[in-house]
Structure prediction request, 241 residues.
Amino acid sequence: MSKLPILMYHNVCQSDSDSNKLTVSVQNLERQFQYLIDNGYKTFHFEELDRMGTIPKKSIVLTFDDVTENQLIYALPLLEKFKLKASFFIPFQYIGKTDLWNKATGEQAQKIMTIEQLKQLPSEIIELGYHSYKHERYQSLSLSEIQEDFLKCEEEIKNQNLNVYPALAYPYGNYPKESKEKADFKSLLKENKMKFGLKIGNRPNTFPFKDNYEIKRIDIKGLDSLMVFRLKIRFGKLKLF
Prediction:
């Protein structure tokens, strides 16, 4: 078995002074990507992982939640510059709107990409995935509400002719935890043909995955130093930071 760190990003900003918990500066992101290149890391899409039984020793997955416009402006050019792949997860109800779910947190509202912008993303660099329809916590929803959420995602994908891979990043990393509810939730994921489900977990995964619906991601924060970034890739989130 190999170790596979999967990194979770959100917003990207122009200046270090605007960095915060959910927002990494373009300068910091460039340093992180440069580190990956300098140290021989290879990036993959989930569509590729689904066909692979083994992975190279230095493999990594880059994920960005919410498809905010700032990712298009700042992250995409760096991904293209360094020839890195990433998966972008869509909250379908908010396409072309703003991330209203962040209002209560005090975070500045961010524009979500439009359909036209999503369709212009280069597929060899960006893989699109699911981030639910309403961006609500699955644990607070009934199975029928979750199923309705899936149906609305599929309707949007069909109506807009989007190419979306069936990998799902759970909003807030949240999903039912109690054994029966968890089993029912995973059955629903299978019924809706989801190949992968991503939580947080803050540890590298073993590959092949032990459970395709409990894949761990490592939260990369805007104020993480390069040293913290390096440690997170190797060990995950430690109590030191």
The chain has one domain: 2-235. The first helix runs from residue 26 to 38. The longest strand covers residues 59-65. The domain at 2-235 is CATH 3.20.20.370 (TIM Barrel).
